[in-house]
Amino acid sequence: MIGFFLRRLGESMLAIWGVVTIMFFVTRVLGDPAALLLPIGASAADIEALRDQLGLNQPLMVQYFHFLTSALQGDFGTSFQHGRDAMDVVLERLPATATLALTAIAIGLVIGAVAGSVAALKRGSAVELLVMAVALLGQATPVFWLGIMLILFFAVNLGWLPTGGYGTIWQLILPAVTLAVFVSASIARLLRSSMLDILQEDYIRTAKAKGLLRSTVFFWHVARNALIPVVTMTAILTGELLGGSVVTETVFAWPGIGRLIIQAIEAKDFPIIQAGITLIAAIFVLINFLVDLLYGVLDPRIRKAR
Fold this sequence. Notes:
Number of strands: 0
CATH superfamily: MetI-like
Subcellular location: Cell membrane
CATH architecture: Orthogonal Bundle
Keywords: Cell membrane, Membrane, Transmembrane, Transmembrane helix, Transport
Pfam families: BPD_transp_1, BPD_transp_1_N
Structural class: mainly alpha
Membrane topology: Multi-pass membrane protein
CATH class: Mainly Alpha
Organism: Roseibium algae
Protein backbone atom coordinates (compact mmCIF):
# COMPACT_ATOMS: atom_id res chain seq x y z
CA MET A 1 0.00 0.00 0.00
CA ILE A 2 2.88 2.37 0.79
CA GLY A 3 4.41 1.79 -2.63
CA PHE A 4 1.06 2.45 -4.31
CA PHE A 5 0.67 5.65 -2.28
CA LEU A 6 4.13 6.92 -3.23
CA ARG A 7 3.61 6.13 -6.92
CA ARG A 8 0.32 7.96 -7.04
CA LEU A 9 1.79 10.89 -5.09
CA GLY A 10 4.69 11.13 -7.52
CA GLU A 11 2.35 11.01 -10.52
CA SER A 12 0.18 13.72 -8.95
CA MET A 13 3.13 16.03 -8.32
CA LEU A 14 4.37 15.44 -11.88
CA ALA A 15 0.93 16.35 -13.25
CA ILE A 16 0.85 19.61 -11.28
CA TRP A 17 4.39 20.49 -12.41
CA GLY A 18 3.42 19.85 -16.04
CA VAL A 19 0.35 22.07 -15.83
CA VAL A 20 2.25 24.85 -14.08
CA THR A 21 5.10 24.74 -16.60
CA ILE A 22 2.80 24.86 -19.63
CA MET A 23 0.81 27.66 -18.01
CA PHE A 24 3.95 29.73 -17.35
CA PHE A 25 5.13 29.66 -20.95
CA VAL A 26 1.64 30.17 -22.41
CA THR A 27 1.08 33.31 -20.32
CA ARG A 28 4.24 34.81 -21.80
CA VAL A 29 2.60 34.64 -25.23
CA LEU A 30 -0.27 36.89 -24.10
CA GLY A 31 1.74 40.04 -24.59
CA ASP A 32 3.43 42.75 -22.58
CA PRO A 33 1.52 43.69 -19.39
CA ALA A 34 3.69 46.78 -18.85
CA ALA A 35 1.99 48.56 -21.75
CA LEU A 36 -1.43 47.99 -20.11
CA LEU A 37 -0.41 49.04 -16.63
CA LEU A 38 0.88 52.44 -17.69
CA PRO A 39 -1.33 55.31 -18.93
CA ILE A 40 -1.96 55.64 -22.65
CA GLY A 41 0.87 57.53 -24.28
CA ALA A 42 3.54 56.40 -21.80
CA SER A 43 7.05 56.69 -23.20
CA ALA A 44 9.14 53.73 -24.22
CA ALA A 45 11.52 54.54 -21.37
CA ASP A 46 8.68 54.31 -18.82
CA ILE A 47 7.52 50.99 -20.25
CA GLU A 48 11.06 49.64 -20.18
CA ALA A 49 11.52 50.78 -16.58
CA LEU A 50 8.32 49.01 -15.52
CA ARG A 51 9.33 45.86 -17.37
CA ASP A 52 12.61 45.92 -15.47
CA GLN A 53 10.76 46.46 -12.18
CA LEU A 54 8.46 43.50 -12.85
CA GLY A 55 11.35 41.28 -13.89
CA LEU A 56 10.06 40.89 -17.44
CA ASN A 57 13.40 41.88 -18.98
CA GLN A 58 15.13 38.81 -17.61
CA PRO A 59 15.71 35.78 -19.87
CA LEU A 60 12.68 33.51 -20.04
CA MET A 61 14.37 30.55 -18.34
CA VAL A 62 15.56 32.81 -15.52
CA GLN A 63 11.98 34.00 -15.03
CA TYR A 64 10.82 30.36 -15.05
CA PHE A 65 13.39 29.34 -12.43
CA HIS A 66 12.44 32.25 -10.18
CA PHE A 67 8.76 31.43 -10.63
CA LEU A 68 9.22 27.76 -9.66
CA THR A 69 11.34 28.49 -6.60
CA SER A 70 8.87 31.11 -5.41
CA ALA A 71 5.83 28.94 -6.18
CA LEU A 72 7.24 26.12 -4.05
CA GLN A 73 7.13 28.58 -1.14
CA GLY A 74 3.56 29.62 -1.97
CA ASP A 75 4.64 32.95 -3.44
CA PHE A 76 3.17 33.70 -6.88
CA GLY A 77 4.05 37.35 -6.86
CA THR A 78 2.02 40.52 -6.49
CA SER A 79 -1.01 41.05 -8.70
CA PHE A 80 -0.45 43.77 -11.30
CA GLN A 81 -4.10 44.88 -10.98
CA HIS A 82 -4.83 44.48 -7.28
CA GLY A 83 -1.41 45.31 -5.86
CA ARG A 84 -1.68 42.40 -3.41
CA ASP A 85 -0.39 38.86 -3.07
CA ALA A 86 -1.82 36.95 -6.05
CA MET A 87 -2.67 33.76 -4.16
CA ASP A 88 -4.51 35.75 -1.48
CA VAL A 89 -6.69 37.33 -4.17
CA VAL A 90 -7.41 33.91 -5.69
CA LEU A 91 -8.23 32.29 -2.35
CA GLU A 92 -10.73 35.07 -1.62
CA ARG A 93 -12.72 33.86 -4.65
CA LEU A 94 -12.62 30.18 -3.61
CA PRO A 95 -15.71 30.27 -1.32
CA ALA A 96 -17.89 31.61 -4.15
CA THR A 97 -16.66 28.91 -6.53
CA ALA A 98 -17.04 26.18 -3.88
CA THR A 99 -20.61 27.27 -3.09
CA LEU A 100 -21.59 27.16 -6.75
CA ALA A 101 -19.79 23.88 -7.47
CA LEU A 102 -21.09 21.94 -4.47
CA THR A 103 -24.66 23.15 -5.01
CA ALA A 104 -24.54 22.08 -8.65
CA ILE A 105 -23.07 18.68 -7.71
CA ALA A 106 -25.76 18.11 -5.07
CA ILE A 107 -28.58 18.96 -7.48
CA GLY A 108 -27.00 16.94 -10.27
CA LEU A 109 -26.49 13.88 -8.07
CA VAL A 110 -30.09 13.76 -6.92
CA ILE A 111 -31.60 14.27 -10.36
CA GLY A 112 -29.06 12.07 -12.13
CA ALA A 113 -29.43 9.20 -9.67
CA VAL A 114 -33.21 9.20 -9.92
CA ALA A 115 -33.22 9.54 -13.71
CA GLY A 116 -30.57 6.85 -14.23
CA SER A 117 -32.31 4.40 -11.90
CA VAL A 118 -35.70 4.93 -13.55
CA ALA A 119 -34.20 4.47 -17.02
CA ALA A 120 -32.52 1.20 -15.98
CA LEU A 121 -35.62 -0.22 -14.28
CA LYS A 122 -37.84 0.78 -17.23
CA ARG A 123 -35.51 -0.65 -19.86
CA GLY A 124 -37.05 -0.84 -23.33
CA SER A 125 -39.96 1.44 -22.46
CA ALA A 126 -40.88 4.91 -23.62
CA VAL A 127 -39.80 6.22 -20.20
CA GLU A 128 -36.23 5.04 -20.76
CA LEU A 129 -36.18 6.54 -24.24
CA LEU A 130 -37.41 9.89 -22.92
CA VAL A 131 -34.97 9.98 -20.00
CA MET A 132 -31.98 9.10 -22.18
CA ALA A 133 -33.00 11.62 -24.85
CA VAL A 134 -33.19 14.39 -22.26
CA ALA A 135 -29.87 13.29 -20.74
CA LEU A 136 -28.17 13.31 -24.13
CA LEU A 137 -29.58 16.75 -24.83
CA GLY A 138 -28.34 17.96 -21.44
CA GLN A 139 -24.80 16.79 -22.18
CA ALA A 140 -24.78 18.26 -25.66
CA THR A 141 -26.17 21.69 -24.78
CA PRO A 142 -23.45 24.39 -24.54
CA VAL A 143 -23.28 25.77 -21.01
CA PHE A 144 -23.05 29.41 -22.10
CA TRP A 145 -26.16 29.09 -24.31
CA LEU A 146 -28.15 27.36 -21.57
CA GLY A 147 -27.16 30.04 -19.07
CA ILE A 148 -28.24 32.84 -21.38
CA MET A 149 -31.57 31.10 -22.12
CA LEU A 150 -32.27 30.66 -18.41
CA ILE A 151 -31.53 34.34 -17.82
CA LEU A 152 -33.82 35.41 -20.65
CA PHE A 153 -36.69 33.18 -19.50
CA PHE A 154 -36.60 33.29 -15.69
CA ALA A 155 -34.95 36.68 -15.11
CA VAL A 156 -35.90 38.88 -18.06
CA ASN A 157 -39.30 37.53 -19.16
CA LEU A 158 -40.73 36.24 -15.88
CA GLY A 159 -38.72 38.40 -13.48
CA TRP A 160 -38.57 35.59 -10.91
CA LEU A 161 -34.81 35.54 -10.38
CA PRO A 162 -31.91 38.01 -10.66
CA THR A 163 -29.78 37.93 -13.80
CA GLY A 164 -26.56 37.51 -11.85
CA GLY A 165 -24.51 38.57 -8.88
CA TYR A 166 -23.52 36.92 -5.62
CA GLY A 167 -24.70 36.97 -2.04
CA THR A 168 -28.21 35.49 -1.87
CA ILE A 169 -29.71 32.07 -2.54
CA TRP A 170 -31.80 33.56 -5.36
CA GLN A 171 -28.63 34.60 -7.19
CA LEU A 172 -27.29 31.07 -6.78
CA ILE A 173 -30.21 29.24 -8.38
CA LEU A 174 -29.67 29.98 -12.08
CA PRO A 175 -25.89 29.36 -12.26
CA ALA A 176 -26.21 26.23 -10.11
CA VAL A 177 -28.99 24.82 -12.30
CA THR A 178 -26.97 25.64 -15.43
CA LEU A 179 -24.09 23.50 -14.18
CA ALA A 180 -26.35 20.84 -12.66
CA VAL A 181 -27.90 20.07 -16.06
CA PHE A 182 -24.62 18.67 -17.41
CA VAL A 183 -23.82 16.94 -14.11
CA SER A 184 -27.19 15.21 -13.85
CA ALA A 185 -27.13 14.17 -17.51
CA SER A 186 -23.66 12.62 -17.17
CA ILE A 187 -24.53 10.75 -13.98
CA ALA A 188 -27.89 9.52 -15.33
CA ARG A 189 -26.33 7.98 -18.45
CA LEU A 190 -23.46 6.41 -16.52
CA LEU A 191 -25.66 5.02 -13.75
CA ARG A 192 -28.14 3.53 -16.22
CA SER A 193 -25.35 1.78 -18.12
CA SER A 194 -23.76 0.50 -14.93
CA MET A 195 -27.05 -0.79 -13.53
CA LEU A 196 -27.95 -2.59 -16.76
CA ASP A 197 -24.60 -4.40 -16.69
CA ILE A 198 -25.06 -5.46 -13.07
CA LEU A 199 -28.62 -6.66 -13.68
CA GLN A 200 -27.15 -9.27 -16.06
CA GLU A 201 -24.79 -10.69 -13.42
CA ASP A 202 -25.32 -14.21 -12.05
CA TYR A 203 -25.52 -13.09 -8.42
CA ILE A 204 -28.51 -10.88 -9.29
CA ARG A 205 -30.31 -13.86 -10.83
CA THR A 206 -29.47 -15.89 -7.74
CA ALA A 207 -30.83 -13.19 -5.43
CA LYS A 208 -34.07 -13.08 -7.40
CA ALA A 209 -34.31 -16.89 -7.42
CA LYS A 210 -33.98 -16.92 -3.62
CA GLY A 211 -37.17 -14.91 -3.45
CA LEU A 212 -35.70 -11.67 -2.16
CA LEU A 213 -37.89 -8.63 -2.43
CA ARG A 214 -37.33 -6.55 -5.54
CA SER A 215 -36.47 -3.51 -3.42
CA THR A 216 -33.86 -5.53 -1.49
CA VAL A 217 -32.24 -6.75 -4.70
CA PHE A 218 -32.22 -3.22 -6.09
CA PHE A 219 -30.81 -1.36 -3.09
CA TRP A 220 -28.48 -3.98 -1.62
CA HIS A 221 -27.12 -5.61 -4.76
CA VAL A 222 -27.69 -3.46 -7.83
CA ALA A 223 -27.49 0.13 -6.59
CA ARG A 224 -24.51 -0.34 -4.27
CA ASN A 225 -22.34 -1.87 -7.00
CA ALA A 226 -23.56 0.47 -9.72
CA LEU A 227 -22.50 3.51 -7.70
CA ILE A 228 -18.78 2.66 -7.92
CA PRO A 229 -18.22 4.26 -11.37
CA VAL A 230 -20.56 7.09 -10.34
CA VAL A 231 -18.16 7.93 -7.51
CA THR A 232 -15.38 8.37 -10.06
CA MET A 233 -17.53 10.53 -12.30
CA THR A 234 -18.65 12.66 -9.35
CA ALA A 235 -15.05 13.17 -8.23
CA ILE A 236 -13.99 14.28 -11.70
CA LEU A 237 -16.93 16.66 -12.07
CA THR A 238 -16.36 18.07 -8.58
CA GLY A 239 -12.71 18.75 -9.41
CA GLU A 240 -13.67 20.49 -12.61
CA LEU A 241 -16.31 22.67 -10.97
CA LEU A 242 -14.18 23.52 -7.94
CA GLY A 243 -11.43 24.47 -10.36
CA GLY A 244 -13.63 27.23 -11.63
CA SER A 245 -16.61 27.12 -13.96
CA VAL A 246 -15.23 29.82 -16.20
CA VAL A 247 -18.11 30.18 -18.65
CA THR A 248 -20.90 30.02 -16.09
CA GLU A 249 -19.21 32.43 -13.71
CA THR A 250 -18.68 34.87 -16.56
CA VAL A 251 -22.28 34.64 -17.83
CA PHE A 252 -23.78 35.18 -14.37
CA ALA A 253 -21.14 37.67 -13.10
CA TRP A 254 -20.34 35.19 -10.34
CA PRO A 255 -17.18 36.31 -8.46
CA GLY A 256 -15.41 32.97 -8.55
CA ILE A 257 -11.96 31.78 -9.55
CA GLY A 258 -12.92 31.16 -13.17
CA ARG A 259 -14.16 34.71 -13.73
CA LEU A 260 -11.11 36.10 -11.94
CA ILE A 261 -8.78 34.21 -14.29
CA ILE A 262 -10.66 35.48 -17.35
CA GLN A 263 -10.29 39.05 -16.11
CA ALA A 264 -6.60 38.43 -15.38
CA ILE A 265 -6.03 37.08 -18.91
CA GLU A 266 -7.62 40.19 -20.40
CA ALA A 267 -5.38 42.39 -18.24
CA LYS A 268 -2.29 40.17 -18.69
CA ASP A 269 -2.01 39.87 -14.91
CA PHE A 270 0.53 37.02 -14.90
CA PRO A 271 0.64 36.46 -11.10
CA ILE A 272 -3.15 36.02 -10.85
CA ILE A 273 -3.21 33.67 -13.85
CA GLN A 274 -0.36 31.59 -12.44
CA ALA A 275 -1.82 31.43 -8.92
CA GLY A 276 -5.33 30.64 -10.16
CA ILE A 277 -4.38 27.89 -12.59
CA THR A 278 -1.98 26.33 -10.07
CA LEU A 279 -4.78 26.19 -7.48
CA ILE A 280 -7.18 24.68 -10.04
CA ALA A 281 -4.62 22.02 -11.00
CA ALA A 282 -3.90 21.23 -7.36
CA ILE A 283 -7.61 20.83 -6.50
CA PHE A 284 -8.29 18.60 -9.50
CA VAL A 285 -5.22 16.41 -8.95
CA LEU A 286 -5.87 16.15 -5.20
CA ILE A 287 -9.43 14.92 -5.69
CA ASN A 288 -8.34 12.32 -8.23
CA PHE A 289 -5.46 11.30 -5.96
CA LEU A 290 -7.85 10.68 -3.06
CA VAL A 291 -10.21 8.69 -5.30
CA ASP A 292 -7.31 6.53 -6.51
CA LEU A 293 -6.30 5.84 -2.91
CA LEU A 294 -9.90 4.94 -2.04
CA TYR A 295 -10.03 2.50 -4.94
CA GLY A 296 -6.73 1.02 -3.80
CA VAL A 297 -8.23 0.37 -0.38
CA LEU A 298 -11.47 -1.09 -1.73
CA ASP A 299 -9.90 -3.27 -4.41
CA PRO A 300 -6.34 -4.61 -3.79
CA ARG A 301 -6.14 -5.65 -7.45
CA ILE A 302 -5.79 -1.98 -8.40
CA ARG A 303 -2.71 -1.61 -6.17
CA LYS A 304 -1.09 -4.67 -7.68
CA ALA A 305 -1.89 -3.53 -11.23
CA ARG A 306 0.12 -0.34 -10.71
